[in-house]
Amino acid sequence: MRTKDPGDVENITAVTEFIILGLSDNPDLQVPLFLIFLLIYLITLLGNLAIVIATCIDPRLHTPMYFFLSHLSFTDICCTSNIVPKLLVIFLAGEKTISYSGCIMQLFFFMGFACTECFLLTAMAYDRYVAVCHPLHYLLIMNQKVYVLLAAASWTGGFLTSVTIMVSVICLSFCASNEINHIFCELMPLLKLSCTDTASAETVLFIAAALTSVPASLVTLTSYTFIISAILRIRSAEGKRKAFSTCSSHLTVISVFYLSIFCVYLRPNSTYSLQQGKILSVVYTTVTPMLNPLIYSLRNKDVKNALRKVIGR
Known about the structure:
This is Olfactory receptor. By secondary structure, the protein is mainly alpha-helical.
């Protein structure tokens, strides 16, 4: 076990496992919460898996837009599966402990998938910009090489960001309380448990979050500025409706994603509320991945038809 520096007056045994407190200690709520989150998890898995299968088997969905959508759905499956199964065990069996290494790995994959999703949403915004503003050159600009490279860059950038953050976290010592007042090994409540100075880790986190989300959001905002400008120049109301319908699903998804991420990671640690963090984490780890396939399928005829084909098989 690790101990504090020899210069300290007393040695304090380092934490080797954490206790995830979850949403509530009320025993009467554990079964209802288990059923609710189990239902959400199953809907998330089935919905996103259906999107992935549909984009693979339906030739009409072999386009850059649906290529990115399949990666987004796969990311949602991975991110949710990294968190919800442990949460279900907490609700049903009351087993709240998680090893130090297990906690670190859960945090690493969560950060990796979350950053990857941020980059994928940015790539999708650029794809919509090309589709609306340069429709005649769309297939030339968004050729297979380009959209495959964008997807690969999204995954690479996402996990490189996660590695950068995790290096600063691993350097911290945890030698006092081991109770994480959250639904999983999330970064902000974990930093609050450290018995060493977290200033450098918080700085790395803020810089990494800013370098990830701020440029991504600026690219997205710029893309939609040009998209809206192009749509307003369309004379017919039907033409405007069709042009906007190609972007509305993506716009809805990114609005929910960025709102929750900005509220959690791009504000001073002193203003961070654990209770608010729990609520927001439920949104971006369970609710948003469940809603993403519903938003895209309900607003898109091609996806609807492809999903019917999958269900029919």
